[in-house]
# Entry
Amino acid sequence: MNRSDIRFAIPSNGRLEKDALTFMDACGLPVKRRNPRQYTATIRGLPGVTALWQRQNDIVRGIRQGSLDFAIVGLDALSERCPTNQPELCENILVLHDELGISHCELHLAVPSQWGDVNTLADLKEKAKVLDPLRIATKFPNLTQQFMLDKGIEPFETVKADGTLEIAPAIDFADIIVDLVSTGTTLKANALKQIDDGMLIHSQGVLVASKQALKDRPEVLETARILLEYFAAYLRAKDSYTVTANVRGDSPEAVSAMMLHKENIRGLQGPTISKVVPHQLTEEADNQWYAINIIVRRDALSDAIREIREIGGSGVIVTEVRYIFEEEPVRYRAMLEALNLR
# Structure
């Protein structure tokens, strides 16, 4: 397939579409669509790349066949359409980033709440023998079948369903369901409960690409580098702060030693320390002040401020961090190695 454009697919409906667009914007690569009825758009910062809206089934198929170059897709949808027992189906798909941190959910077994004697897979195994077979309504037949076989739960049969699954047991369309669960509220509202050890997969948004396009087209490889640079920089900086303060000390080394003895003010690779030049050379100015600069995680901020005060720090300034760029993203190196380009 000879073409010169670069295509980036986004799921066309559901929570993942909204989360993917929000994520791209946060990464500094906003998708710009002139009106919501259009199914194509541009991506600021990636000239020559066209964003396309497609259903997840078509996204996986498009990457597999080479009609798409990049996509954000749910790990659940990808795993269902790329079963582990048929690796040849998705030879052209390379997962570039498997932890975008968006659209978290679980693919889970759910049984009628009235089944008081079924709370674990061991219980379900016994129930399946009684029902002979256990009927499972799901939109994920491949993942469901593999899970049930791996757990030794037989006999069973999968019942394909395209609509709302939660009603299936109530209308005797199936005995149980396998469906995506975020909070469990919908299950409870429909008299269903999760099996304690019945999670098939923990899913979230992932970035995938066409291996062939990465190998054959330098401009696609360069686009992958930019995507991974910004994705990694945003995710590394997420929930982080730059903390600046003034600390008295005899030397930068002495201030550093005090900081490195603390748990939360050590910095990424160590603190950045510079001498403060006083307004006037007074006797007080002889006690040297140093400005320190460190990156601190949100959940450690309170402890970090306390530790700065413990070493004599004052004038603490806290600002949010948008990006932290590495020398070279780990996942970019992994991509080059997977393509035998390094």
